[in-house]
Amino acid sequence: MCCCFTRRLKIINIDIVFQNELFVVINKPHGLLVHGTNTTNEYTLRDYLMENFDINGIGEDNREGIVHRLDRVTSGLIICPINLQAFSQLKTSFEKRKIKKSYKAIIQGSLKSQSGEINLPLIHSPRNRKKREVNKNGREAITKYTTIRSSDSYSLLDLDLITGRNHQIRAHLEYLKTPIVNDVLYGASRSHLLDRDTICLQSYELEFELFNKNYKFSINEPEYFSSIMKM
Fold first, then answer.
1. Short-list 38, 158, 162, 148, CA closest to 99
2. Is 71 designated active site?
3. Which of 106, 87, 93 is nearest to 182 (CA)?
4. Hey, what domains does the chain have and what are their CATH numbers?
5. CA dist list (Å): 211 to 84, 90, 215
6. Given 3-state DSSP classes, what are the helix, strand and coil percentages for the chain, each rounded to the nearest 5?
7. Which residues, at least 6 apart from 190, have a Cβ–Cβ distance to it below 8 Å?
8. Catalytically annotated residue among 15, 54, 61, 71
9. What is the pTM for the complete model shown?
10. What letter would DSSP give residue 98?
11. pLDDT per position as a tens digit, 27-71
């Protein structure tokens, strides 16, 4: 069977938060894939990196410069090594959970406690291959959270990923019946204020050590967060 794909237009205005000879930190917009898949041929962050940096051989084929991911619908900070030694070190740091990743999310409703730890193992959903779901036989998944503020309908959370499972925050919050705003895949209602490829989840802070130097990067939450919280 022959599959034909339409390639999306290039995204020109990539927001580079920081750059040196070792890595770049990018504020990934929602709607942009980090790397290609076997079901699409659209323009990705990896394509942008290949066009703008000399990263041939730095990482796996078709995933050059990639040591971690953000979902298409998630915006925010992502580290992209552009040096082979930095790639190796950062990959090891992610595997050993030495990189602190903090997120902000707006959820429908509110959690029972102002702060806490969600420790619920996850598996690939047998009902929907695109999803993860809580299952006692799954892989360990731990998310810490603090409620920043709440309105009648929504809550703004600060979340730290202790583990980094695919869709971890999204699956945890769906299980607790407080899905992320506009995350229809994980049980949320559709928001008329947001595009289909946007959910209220942002990677807003990264903190790590590389070659005995400490780095910390943070960005402001998107403007649409304020619009949602005022509803």
1. 162
2. yes
3. 106
4. 1-96 (3.30.2350.10), 100-206+217-231 (3.30.2350.10)
5. 13, 10, 10
6. 15, 35, 50
7. 182, 184
8. 71
9. 0.91
10. -
11. 999 999 999 876 677 899 999 999 999 999 999 888 999 999 999
